Amino acid sequence: MVVGTMSNSGKSLLTAGLCRVFNQDGYKVAPFKSQNMALNSFITKEGAEMGRAQVVQAEAANIEPSVLMNPILLKPTSDSGSQVIVNGEAIGTMKAQEYYAMKHTLRPKVQEAFDKLSSQYDIVCIEGAGSPAEINIKKDDFVNMGMAQMAKAPVLLVADIDRGGVFASIYGTLMLLEPEERAMVKGVVINKFRGDVEILRPGLRMIEEKTGVPVIGVLPMLNVDIEDEDSLSERISGHSEVDLIDIAVIRTPRMSNYTDFNVFELIPGVSLRYVKNVRDLGNPDMIIIPGTKNTIGDLKWLRQSGMEAAILKHASNGTVIFGICGGYQMLGQSLSDPYGVEEGGQMRGMGLLPCETTFSKEKSRTRVSGQVVGAAGFFAPLEGAQCSGYEIHMGRTVPAGDAPDHFLQLTDAAGKQTRDGLCSGNVLGSYLHGLFDEGDFAERLVDLLAQRKGLSKENAPKERYAEYKQRQYDKLAFEVRRHLDLKRVYRILQEGIE
Fold it and tell me: What is the pLDDT of residues 383-414, one digit of tens each?
């Protein structure tokens, strides 16, 4: 098991790296995280919803993602509430206190998922959440040391040196554990180090003497491009320079699945920016409104912040507007929430697409593939482009009035055909997450944007996105092998815990 001294210490990355190393060494390995809190989610082949962090780790292990790898997913809907997803199915939206009151009832489900997974694989790499020293919520814990005890797993503790105070965080974390928990921690990994490790060695010796736990590796600040778990990602907080083709993603408060757009970063001449205020919007070639866990709440934010007015102005001037999932819903004429799925009531949409959305009690979850069949306006040259992805949404969006045909013809795993999305002039909306990842959709869209600006450029990436990701996992594994004492890691695995 990999736990961290704090959130964003590098647990997810190290777990992915170990999954890749073990896979390269010939073992059947799977990731596991009993409870994940994130807005980035994924739909499995079976139609179950799980956190993307474990999908990334499964990719690193060269296996198909399974909901067994993440039996509980919490998707925040507000500052104090989350949608609770158990074994891939949403069971309701709860305030934090409500969830903690019933959390103990989920322990058997976590144990069952782990037991099934561990029976199928040689090694299971378990990831913790936050810190194991959160003493206020240790009761009924099945996420950190409680999970390690359930799995009888030896533990590695990861600490982020880049934030400062690394030795205090290591010592404090270990001292706040119960003695039997502390005995399960078999090694410390210091992450995100910059500089000469020889200068660090006196501190390493001292922390080993004070805690009795060996430091088994010092990972440098890694230059690998692997999907980040949540909104702590530097990817969406930085301000990149504008390139030949400028794509701006609106960073709404409850933005989800922002990894939908990572592929654009691989296309030469394209800049991908995440903006959260009007002054940073500038004059992009395409504005993307991403998915969200609270469509109505984020639409209110767009309206109150002035971002909606700016988007409408850009749309009237011909800027390409693209809405994904919740962003697609916002682009329509109206949103209705008769069952109080989000905030209840009705709300006017942005009016850029001729469609209406009604929220339902049941969530749509499906993996699909297909092609563009109803392209028109600016998007007409995309006709026939191939695509695939997955849907995760609570609403049903239907054309209104004399709306054009749907944009996509899709087929699910069972062979059922559906239609999705609408386009009107320079505005397009679709429910499909992962739309840009495979096929030729992203390349052809960027080519259209380039042609509009009179640019003649070779826009195709040097390698497909899936191939690029595999290369990044190999780079990560190389660094893990280089900087971790893997002989000790294997010895820890073989010895287990008493």
Answer: 999 999 999 988 899 988 776 778 999 998 88
Closest CA to 469 of 36, 70, 122, 55: 55
pLDDT for residue 127: 97
Count of H helices and E strands in the chain? Answer: 15, 26
Amino acid in the structure at residue 419: R
Query: What's the confidence (pLDDT) of residue 259?
Result: 85
Q: Is the distance from CB of 383 to CB of 372 less than 8 angstroms?
A: yes
What integer pLDDT is reported at residue 457 of this predicted model?
53
**DSSP letter (8 states) at residue 239:** -
Closest CA to 19 of 127, 114, 117, 131: 127
Out of 325, 355, 387, 423, the active site residue is: 325
With contact defined as beta carbons under 8 Å apart, do 288 and 78 qualify? no
Give pLDDT, residue 231: 44
Q: Examine the residue annotation and report whether 325 is marked as an active-site residue of this protein.
A: yes
Helix axis angle, 465-483 to 11-24, nearest 10°: 90
State residue 243's pLDDT score. Answer: 77
SS3 49: strand
Question: How many angstroms separate the CA atoms of 34 and 36, rounded?
Answer: 7
pLDDT, position 240: 58
* Parts of the chain with a pLDDT under 70: 228-241, 403, 456-463
SS3 132: coil
DSSP H helical ranges for 77-213: 96-102, 107-120, 145-151, 166-176, 179-182, 197-211
Q: Which two tokens stand for residue 171?
A: 């010592």
Catalytic residue list contains 423: no
Gap between the Cα atoms of 203 and 67, Å rounded:
41
- Say whether pTM exceeds 0.85: no
Q: pLDDT by residue (tens digit) across 296-327?
A: 999 999 999 999 999 999 999 999 999 999 99
Give me the residues paired with residue 248 across strands.
273, 287
Phi, psi of 409 (to 5 degrees): -105, 120
In this structure, what is the dihedral angle of CA atoms 61, 76, 250, 432, given to the nearest 10 degrees?
60
CA distance 380 to 438: 20
d(CA 144, CA 34): 9
Token pair in block for residue 428: 């397009």
Q: Residues 87, 88, 94, 98: what is their CA dihedral angle, to the nearest 10 degrees?
A: 10
The alpha-carbon radius of gyration of the chain (Å, integer) is 23
